[in-house]
Amino acid sequence: MADQVTNDVTGQQAETATAQAPLKPAVAQISPAPLPRKPKQDRPPEGDPGIWRLSRRNLLTLAGWLGFFGFIIVSTIGSLRYMFPRVLFEPPMKFKAGSPSDFTIGEVSERFKDEKRVWIVREREGFYALISICTHLGCTPRWLPSDNKFKCPCHGSGFYKTGMNFEGPAPRPLERAFVGIADDGQLEVDRSTKFLYEKNEWGKPGSFLKYTG
User: What are the chain's domains?
Assistant: First the structure.
């Protein structure tokens, strides 16, 4: 009986000691084979905080900043361009046509038709200059010496040598430009000054230059 009690007490003490004893940590098993490393292009550089990685968030942020700075640059260029207005450089409206003796009486000179869009006509009494623009739709008529008239190739308008319209859809005569004598004795034509027949301006000074030399 005493031996049994002694054995029970001893067993309880052993169980208590076993329960109170600290558990030993399990020893990690180290694999003798090294783990495969990621390819170099897939690994971030050393010390990289991750802000340069093109994730979706970083890509959207970068696109937003690029759009913002692009807008600033374009706005700045537009503001600077606005400070320099566009100027259309055209040939001067006033030009010298040469000596009056260079023109033959009764003929229409087409020397300045293409560059200046002007015909210079010399009559026995003097000179007048016709602007070579059809009064219908702005085409350039042709001088036909055999018919002694100007003929528009676009819609068939016809004008006498004086500039008067007589056929086709042109609603009014050709316009005349100012013609005079410059200080050096040359003919001077100014397209910026026009004379319209329907306004009774063909009799004004400059619409016809009297010259009998």
Answer: 97-210 (2.102.10.10)
